[in-house]
Amino acid sequence: MDRDTLKQALENADLTAYEAEAYLTLVDYGRLPAVDVAKKSGVPTSQVYDTLRSLESKGFVDTIDQDRLHAEPADPVDILTHLRERGELFTEAAEELEDRWEQPDLKDHRVGVVKHADTVLEHVRNRVRETDVAVEVALTADQFESLRTALYSAAKRGVIVHVAIYYESDLTERSEAWDLSRTNLEVRVVKIPGPFIAVLDRSRTYFAPNSRAAENYGILINDNILSFINHWYYQTCLWYPWPPLVGDQDRPKPYISLKEFIRDISALHHDGGNVAVTVSGIDVAADEFRTVTGTVTDIYYPDAVTDDSPSLEQLSTYAVVTLDTGDEQLTVGGWGAVFEDIEAQKITLEAISFDGVGQS
């Protein structure tokens, strides 16, 4: 590498042109009086003292005050480390810029593939800030801690956040530092390893394989139907079968899935319980967002049972809840409802009462 190229490299490592020139002169000649540094380097005499002091503050040179100021190159160990770290930073920055350039614009495409799983997490972190209704995410403890601030902020503004964390031996100890008592956020522990997956507001899905996969990549999906398929996988494999990390939350309890709501309250309803709920979703006829509150009067699904909670198989086709608001009877369907009055996006269990004795 010639001197001019070396000087440019030093300038890229946070030195000014004068500092790079003065430092290389000292490396070439060893200890020199400040005036000689100016003569041999071309740094103006009026600038050389400030230049040497600045180099000293950065650890590149040592100065000695004798009858006049002298300077000599400092031990290069720290400098070499600095240069190598800068090189790694520039390399990583170049790779990241390449990834970002090649990332698909999901405004124009339904599905895109990226090279790194970390890119998927960054997309999720940014998109969670814009969610309105629900977040379903399955991830490792490290990934949860990376996204925790964004997930907590979403829960705080009323978004339902379901977090499925893959089991690790120190999970209980680590979770003690997490505030899991907040409303709208529930965490369950999945005992088998699985992929990173996030379904946001029923329209966007983000996927990355786990650490055992042979390749490191991610998939970005902007499609309602594909998101529904991933939502059903999440519900059946990563949510329903697994226990919560902390005990049941007090009511009002929010639900993302009408079918999960039915599993929880079906037996109570058939035992004579008065189940009060608030349902937020899309008015199917008007195609407008609507929120209604009322009492559950009927639950229907194929081969309905009245003495127990229905199985996932029984709920795998369709299910309908009838709600009495006091002014009207409304039918409530789940994701993709066509014939019901309301497509439920959020169901909040407000209270359960038996013969006038309430439980809220």
UniProtKB/TrEMBL annotation:
The protein, known as: TrmB family transcriptional regulator
Organismal lineage: Archaea, Methanobacteriati, Methanobacteriota, Stenosarchaea group, Halobacteria
Which ranges carry the Transcription regulator TrmB N-terminal domain? 10-71
**Which family does the entry's similarity section mention?**
Belongs to the transcriptional regulator TrmB family.
The protein's organism comes out as Haloarcula onubensis
Give the top-rank taxon of the lineage listed in the UniProt record for this protein: Archaea
The secretion signal range is none
Read off the InterPro entries from this record.
TrmB-like, Tscrpt_reg_TrmB_C, Tscrpt_reg_TrmB_N, WH-like_DNA-bd_sf, WH_DNA-bd_sf
Domain Transcription regulator TrmB C-terminal, residue spans: 111-351
